[in-house]
Amino acid sequence: MKRCIRPDRPCAHLALWLLLWLAAPAWAAAPVSGTLGATGSDTMASLVLRWGEALTARHPGINVQFQAGGSSIAPSALVAGTTRLAPMSRPMSPEEREQFQRRYGYAPVELRVARDALVVVVHRHNPLKALTLSTLDAIFSTTRACGAPAPVSRWEELLPTGDWPYGRIALHGRNLASGTHDLFRQRALCGGHFRDDISEYPGSAAVVAAVGESPRAMGYTGYHHLTPMVQPLGLIDAAGETIMPTPETIQNGEYPLSRYLYLYVNVAPGEALPPAERAFIELIMSEQGQRIVRAAGFVPLPADELEPLS
Amino acid sequence: MTRPALPARTPWRQLQDRIATGLITAAGIGVLLAILAIGVFLFWETLPLLTRFETLSLERLSPLAWGTLKAAIAALVVALPLALGGAIYSALFMSERLRARIKPILELMEAVPGVVVGFVAGLVLAPWVERHLASALALVVWLPLCAVLAGLLWHATPARLRGWLPLGRAGLWLLPWMAAMAVLALWAAPMIEQRWLGDDLVTLLDRRFGLDYTTRNTLIVGLAMGFAVIPGVYSLAEDALHDVPRSLMEGAQALGASRWQALWKVALPMAGPGIFSAAMIGAGRAVGETMIVLMASSNAALISLSPFEGLRSFSAAIAIELPEAPPGGLTYHLLILAALVLFLFTFLVNTLAETVRQRLRRRYRSGGGR
């Protein structure tokens, strides 16, 4: 069941047209070369590097250099002019947009390049399968802004029948300054505050590893970091239906903690992008680019959202 | 001080000397200026925060300050008895030949990078201790007891046998004994746990005392960072003890003091300042250490006394958050303030340790008199 998310666009045949257009031998023209710099999200590091490899395979003259330092350094690099491409795992904040606008006089071009989700994970043998969003908030926050009546801190409160796991829920999450931390706070805690006894890790893979080694643990991480050591929890929506984080539910946005991954481009209106940057974006929006998205563990965009840079 | 007569210098050599002296002086001043510049930079960057004078910074930083202190205390609790005990034994009682081998090996421990220690502690030690908490605690209590027991047994052995087990080489023959005792503890602890406690110790702590157990907790940090601090403390304390003039120890023993009395009444008071400065340098390292705390602790900003709960230290917070904190924001300024506090603290501790050590050196030079 594919739904058209933006009804204002004649999605089906446009998508087909786009695919045809992109599959056309546009790259067979002049050889493109140069060094392509990008700075931004470390969530997207593996993805950008894979795109870079594919681009170099296509145009041996192009060399992609990606500096991963987190989504929050991307806007400043864009404003400072050290890069024209800034991959970010969250949309730019109004202040960041404002800064860019003040420096260049136009807004950066925002491209949605892939879909991703935050998943709540527990140990692979944990009997818990799903949570409601308000329970999730009651577990992770002190504020319970999503409307849970009481905090939940022990496994007995979640699994009244089973006696295993027993005791306090050991919580694991990302560090304060990361985009993942921020997004989880906004979407899962309804903007509230985290409890202060959550173990914080500088990387998502470390969260998964920590949850994978303890049956009493629960944590949140990026979808592409899932390993067989942990099992993702489904989220129960208002209608009482359990939604598991699968490529389909993440792609169509049904899964509540799904998000877009972005690429911000510094290009003046009416200006043509340099050929290397252009080839990079064409690659991302191509079928091959989206196959790479899947291979890197993320979820490809819905076919109707592949847009070329005009 | 009078200078010895130097051979006549050619102008060229004089010039060389001048250049070398100038370069060395410049480098020294450069280093001093750099340290000063770091302080000034940190202070300058925190000014906007300090002028606003909000309680927010105090509120956000106090768990970190406590975490730093807690980690350092845990590390010293682990490191000081082991390092000082080792230093006393190897400086005063160990046979010279064995000492010449053991000391470099222990000092080599310092070369183990913090990342490796933190990695092993966080990924291997922490999960193991969580699964076998009773065994781990049993080891901590049982092994020191076994060392004492070995001493008692040694006293009771007939003199003929003692020749086989010389005191100067106790470090070697104690190894198999301690290993056997460790195996015994590891074998017995789970059975005791099952028989008498009836449950897993972690569950029991939670049920009986309401104590929370975090996988990467203060205990793990203490063990890992203790391991990292031991070589530094050991090496400095050992030097201080070994430099106590032999004549004093021998004199005391000749006057009828036992080895124990000579140790407590002569060697330790003489080397006291050196041992103190060794402990201070250990504390400085424990406070500033980043990777071990980062990887072996939960990084949860808590204020708690429990050794089974996690902590977050200044240095780990700076390492994790600063790369992603947007420059100029509140988090950025708070982190710089944390860096300033850390800088001042380690600076003070190291200066204190160095001053005490200089004074000690002067005391030894003046002939060992009091």
From TrEMBL, chain A:
Residue ranges constituting the PBP domain according to the UniProt record: 28-287
Q: Which keywords does UniProt give here?
A: Signal
Q: Which InterPro entries match?
A: PBP_domain, Phosphate_ABC_transporter
Q: Where is the signal peptide?
A: 1-28
UniProt xrefs under Pfam families: PBP_like_2 (PF12849)
Name assigned to this protein? PstS family phosphate ABC transporter substrate-binding protein
Automatic annotation (TrEMBL), chain B:
Task: Identify the InterPro entries for this entry.
Answer: MetI-like, MetI-like_sf
Q: What protein name applies here? A: ABC transporter permease subunit
| Location of this chain's protein in the cell | Cell membrane
Q: Could you tell me which Gene3D superfamilies the record lists for this protein?
A: MetI-like (1.10.3720.10)
Q: Which UniProt keywords apply?
A: Membrane, Transmembrane, Transmembrane helix, Transport
**Membrane topology, as annotated:** Multi-pass membrane protein
Q: Which family does it belong to?
A: Belongs to the binding-protein-dependent transport system permease family.
ABC transmembrane type-1 domain residues:
65-353
Which chain regions cross the lipid bilayer? 21-44, 64-93, 105-128, 134-155, 167-189, 219-241, 262-283, 332-353
